[in-house]
Amino acid sequence: MSHSNISVFVPHAGCPNKCSFCDQHSISGAQFQPDAKFIRKVCSEALACSKDPDNTEIAFFGGSFTAIRREYMIELLEAAYEFVGEGKFRGIRISTRPDYIDEDVLSILKSYGVTSIELGAQSLDDKVLELNERGHSREDVVNASLLIKEHNFELGLQMMIGLYGSTIASETDTVNTILSIRPDTVRIYPVVILKNTKLSELYKSGIFKPFEFDQVIDIAAEAITRFEDEGIRVIKVGLHASEIVEQEMLGGFYHPAFRELCEARNYRNCIEKLFVGDELTISVPAKDLSKAIGQKRSNILYFAEKGKKLTVIPDKDQIDYLKVINQ
Predict the structure, then answer these.
(1) Fewer CB near the terminus (10 Å): N or C of the chain?
(2) What is the pLDDT, as a whole number, of residue 16?
(3) For residues 163 and 22, what is the distance between their CA atoms, to the nearest angstrom?
(4) Structural domain of residue 210, as residue ranges?
(5) Whole-angstrom Cα distance, residue 165 to residue 218?
(6) Residue 190 contacts residue 216 (beta carbons within 8 Å)
(7) Do 322 and 212 share a domain, yes or no?
């Protein structure tokens, strides 16, 4: 069975500054600050109905977990740790800033059953980090990542495509640096411009001119391929579907099926290399049919505009990515 999380949001708690893109309420949909009682209630209910607790983590998201008040952090960890162990959940996953990781905090996390640490790297370009008021450097990300790996935690990195000041070159450099760090997992978030953020002000003034949507799809699609080719699991692409985000966004690259758009682009790129003449028939695993065809038949239409005919046949018994039937 696939990995799952029992997600608990600690919205904006601990963040020492407000990044250019941040409106944590819109992203998490929550402002409630959980306490030990709430953690025990959520975990107890989740354990009672969990079908695969050994492959499930209690996950603290939504803020900079290791930057919150130390007593509060330990209160939450103590409550969650009661539900970790044999016959219970596998461990605890936390999300935090790279500049709030050190030997002391890692020792505390280890003692309370934390198994996975995700760092909000966002970019590995110091100029982009500064422009977006992240408050940490590229070196902070690299050093924190190495320290986490040395202490045998699962490492996750989060990158954000299309931040203010970013270029195609800096996006490529971020991917290259993540590959050199070799985390266990990656989340890819294309930037979404929300109301009441610095990005929204820059966007409305015309100072911030985002990438074209098609460019972002290309960047994310290539990143997915490169990470997965190196055995790095891409566990999330794009923000989760949210009415709040849809209402609050002014621009950027939100789509409720963003990952499928990227996977369809990867299929298209692969298929394009297979065309010899003007017609091509391929078979794909049945579960991948929508990706091969593309949303709203976008891949079929793409080749049709080039005067080429693509036929895609689903095969429920096929395991391979795709097979050429006729060309």
Answers:
(1) N
(2) 66
(3) 12
(4) 4-256
(5) 18
(6) yes
(7) no
